[in-house]
Amino acid sequence: MAIVEERIKKNLEDLALFTSTPGNGTTRLPFTPEARGAVEYLRKELRDAGMTVREDAAGNIIGRYPGSRPDAPVLMIASHFDSVKNGGNFDGIAGVIAGIELVRHFREEGIVLQHPIEIVGTNDEEGLRFGTGYFGTRAMAGEIGIPYLRSMKDMDGISIHDAMLAYGLDPQGISTAERDLAGEIAAFIEIHIEQGPVLYNTGVEIGLVEGIVGLKRFRVTVQGQADHAGTTPMDMRIDAMDCAAKVIAKISDWAVDAGGNAVATVGSLEVFPNAINIVAEKVIFSVDIRSIDETAIISICERIKKELAVTCRAKGASFSVEETLNVLPVRLDERILSQFEKSSRELGYSSLRMISGAGHDTLPMATKLPSALLFVPSRKGRSHCQEEWTDYGDLVKAIEVLSAMLKTNDY
Ligand code: HGY
Ligand code: MN
Ligand code: MN
Ligand code: MN
């Protein structure tokens, strides 16, 4: 039974309906009704594909397809079901559907590996709602504790802890018991859209990711003083926006100076009280810094903190910097990568080794397990926007490569 492009198309079109911004891209934030709708849809698809299904304490949805050695560590094939705001219909979720399609194919062909397979839809990989990231996979690794759940809050002041309760999950179920993931999971494999232009521009069909950039995220708060915009002389203001803007304006140049193909992004900005005729009392902005070279990340961080200190002192403002995510750069598993390379070649598909500028669930898992990440082309390299598109046929190719690689090696 071939891998069925039509089923993949239908699944992804159905899942695109679970959005809080219909007609304006996919917005499926964690612990929301849209996430719940997508999870229940995936639960049904996983079950119909012949898997036993469970939702873990962190809200990951997990289907299990048995192997001939039931006690063998699992092969985990995963990606995320949450999305960014007004994003596309492929980021993350396409990898979950690809995993389900692989198991449908194995079941219809009567293929049983030694290792059980777990197809996982992970929760809150993007970190958009709470400014974090890789929540589901980091929870699997025992890295998420109750204090973290209570301290990380969204823009409405709702903590992850309370969002979980409202969503029907018990935060107490999250265990920080350091799990021996390497004993439980034989390998972590993710199929994901490239979200960049390399495959599309070169016409290459399969991206073999050798490494993923490291990533640091901050929430910066600048505290000034609200005053009348008209009557307060310029030398008597403590203008939080003026201080923040002076620092933000320099960050992109510091990223270019840092080398290591570093990137730095200020993607969100909140102003209080956010009024045209009031000097800004407080500004909160996000910083997302990435590079395959950790020293480049550190150098940009240091320059931001130093500039904040100098600028705020000169204006009488104060500031705080809260680190909300810190993941080191990773190299992926060469053995698995070359197995993918060989299967791609045997299937007649072109492949290219590359570095991922986007983090993925593979990023935290690769620090603990043999992990691999396969890319499929993104049209014009666009992603995290409604224009995000991947041809369903390209997903079929990646699933065929994964299927061939698992069948021809002793998994
Ligand atoms: O932001 C990222 O790198 C990814 O989309 N989570
Ligand atoms: Mn994303
Ligand atoms: Mn993604
Ligand atoms: Mn990602």
UniProtKB/TrEMBL annotation:
The highest taxon in the source lineage is Bacteria
InterPro entries in alphabetical order:
Amidase_Cbmase, Bact_exopeptidase_dim_dom, Peptidase_M20, Peptidase_M20_dimer
Where in this chain does the record put each Peptidase M20 dimerisation domain? 213-310
Which CDD domains does the record match to this protein? M20_bAS
- Gene3D superfamilies for this protein: 3.30.70.360, Zn peptidases (3.40.630.10)
Q: Belongs to which family?
A: Belongs to the peptidase M20 family.
Provide the protein name: Zn-dependent hydrolase
